[in-house]
Structure formats: structure tokens, C-alpha cells
Specification:
There is one protein chain. By secondary structure, this protein is α/β, with parallel strands linked by helices. The chain has 8 helices and 7 strands, in the order H-H-E-H-E-H-H-H-H-E-H-E-E-E-E. About 40% of the residues lie in helices and about 20% in strands. Helix 1 (about 10-20) packs parallel to helix 3 (about 45-60) and helix 7 crosses helix 8. The relative contact order is 0.20.
């Protein structure tokens, strides 16, 4: 199933069917793999996909399936405010070189020491069945999706995680797997996730 050629309604139907299934919720058929799923979509469809994700979340909640959504952009702002550097970042943004700003933010938002521990805190505050991760495109290049997933492996293995990814998630025997943000930026190797469009309910 190629999400690029499927109408959004059909993608919604597939996601609803898979995520609400007992097989998905009970992590069956994974072997010993971590329950990480990538939901790739064409970047040009970011707005309708946001709307669709919200509808999906509402519908799943109506069925009694509790979703914890982590928007990486919102979480980033929260961390910067908590560390009292949000205003500073806004002040210097227009005056410093992009590379300098990227370096500063990558340090402050390092997935291993800052971002993933904050996700862990949010996970511990709520009982939930599935975690959605969104806002991936909004935090590039400060936060790379494969780094988030790699560091989440020890924190998020009890419930399934679905990352909504504006780009291509390709897997092949010859090349392994890669997350290509916006279909152009090769975001390094990450092979321990399943493409949710290849998953059956």
C-alpha cells in the first residue's frame, strides 16, 4: 500500500482499522521488535494530514482507545521556556547564522539528555494505549527523527508509537531502511520501525 497514491480517506480508514485492532494494541506479530510505526505522507499534504490525525485521534478515543500525542514542536517550545531561553532564541534568531542557531538548539534539545526524558515524563503522567508523535517537519534540522526514535527505544516499548512523517520511509534488503524527510533530506538509517501502511489489522 503506497500512501502517496491513496486518497486521504482510504489512509484514514486503514489507520483506524489497524490502530483499533487487537493485533496492533497487543503488539502481536512484531517478533521481538519495538512497537514503532512510521506513517509517511507527502509533505504537500501536511495540513489535511493534521486534520486527519485529529479526526483519527477523536474517533479512536470514542472507541475507548486513549491516544497520547506528542507534538515535537510544542514540546521543543515547552523545553526552551522551562530552561528560560525561549525569549533569548527569539531575540537572536534574526541576527545569528543559521548554523550557530542550529548548534545552540541541538545542544539544548538533545534527544538523549533533554527531549526523550521529557517525553518520558509525559508518558508517566497519563495512562494511554498508543502514542502519536507529530510536528516532525517543524523541528528539522534541530531535531532529527531517527535520533528521537533511537533514544525512545528504551522508554517507549510498552505501548505502540506512531510517528507521522512528512516524507518517505523506505526499507529494502540491499540498502536497509531510511527516513527521507520531505522526500529529499536523507535522515540517516533507522530500521527498527514498521511502515504502518504495510501493516494489517
Amino acid at each position: 500500500m503506497d500512501p502517496d497514491v491513496l486518497p486521504i480517506q482510504e489512509r484514514y480508514d486503514h489507520l483506524l482499522s489497524v490502530i483499533s485492532s487487537e493485533r496492533f494494541l497487543k503488539k502481536q506479530g512484531l517478533g521481538n521488535e519495538i512497537p514503532f510505526f512510521i506513517c509517511p505522507f507527502p509533505p504537500r499534504e501536511a495540513v489535511p494530514m493534521d486534520r486527519m490525525r485529529q479526526q483519527l485521534k477523536n474517533r479512536l478515543q470514542q472507541q475507548g482507545i486513549v491516544i497520547l500525542e506528542i507534538n515535537l514542536y510544542d514540546l521543543t517550545v515547552e523545553i526552551l521556556k522551562k530552561r528560560k531561553i525561549w525569549e533569548h532564541v527569539l531575540d537572536i534568531e534574526k541576527d545569528v547564522a543559521k548554523e550557530e542557531l542550529t548548534e545552540l538548539l541541538q545542544g539544548v534539545l538533545d534527544p538523549e539528555s533533554h527531549l526523550v526524558p521529557q517525553i518520558g515524563v509525559k508518558m508517566s503522567q497519563d495512562l494511554f494505549d498508543v502514542m502519536f508523535i507529530s510536528g516532525v517537519g517543524d523541528v528539522f534540522p534541530y531535531i532529527r527523527s531517527h535520533n528521537v526514535l533511537s533514544n525512545l527505544q528504551s522508554t517507549a516499548k510498552e505501548q505502540p508509537t506512531v510517528m507521522f512523517f512528512p516524507g518517505v520511509y523506505s526499507q529494502s534488503l540491499e540498502k536497509g531502511a531510511s527516513l527521507d524527510l520531505f522526500g529529499r533530506l536523507h535522515d540517516d538509517k533507522y530500521y527498527r520501525a514498521f511502515n504502518i501502511f504495510h501493516w494489517e489489522a
